[in-house]
Amino acid sequence: MNNMIDDKVKNVIDIIKKMDLENKLRLGVCMSSSTYTNLRYNKAHIYSIFDKKLKETDNEYLTSYVNMRKYPTILFVMAKIMEMNNQEQSQVAMYLFNSIN
Q1: Number of C-alpha atoms within 13 angstroms, CB side, residue 35?
Q2: Which residues contact 85 (CB under 8 A, 6 or more apart)?
Q3: Any idea what DSSP says for residue 64?
Q4: Is the pLDDT of residue 81 over 90?
Q5: CA nearest 24: which of 8, 37, 13?
Q6: Pair 18, 74: CB distance under 8 Å
């Protein structure tokens, strides 16, 4: 059972590793603003960090509403994250946070 949990987290992290910085930031914004994630960390603070960095790098995000349907990989990863328990979600969030710093 524990190995299956590790595989879920590892598979999501493997997808995140292949993302460019802007998509990692978009995912971070989605994760930290979603009511479907239960992170151990201060979601508002994490959101503000991802939001600020994304505004610095993505003009579309800065000037208009971003249609997340344009980013199927992010939607897929969010679906996988929503299937995880709190501990697994927090592991993914910590990896994502550390990968942008």
Answers
A1: 0
A2: 5
A3: S
A4: yes
A5: 13
A6: no
Q: How many CB atoms lie within 10 A of CB 33?
A: 14
Q: How far apart are CA 95 and CA 72, in angstroms?
A: 20
Non-local CB neighbours of 97 within 8 Å, separated by 6+ positions:
28, 46, 49
Determine the angle formed by the axes of helices 21-33 and 43-57, rounding to 10 degrees: 150
**CA-angle at 98, arms to 97 and 101, nearest 5°:** 95
- Residue for token pair 């946070």: 97
- Looking at residue 59, its pLDDT comes to 82
**Residue 92: pLDDT band with limits 50, 70, 90:** very high
Environment class of residue 32 by beta-carbon count within 10 Å: exposed (0-12), middle (13-18) or buried (19+)?
Answer: buried
Altogether, the residues listed in the chain come to a count of 101
Distance of CA 93 to the CA centre of its chain: 6
| C-alpha span between 93 and 31 (Å, rounded) | 8
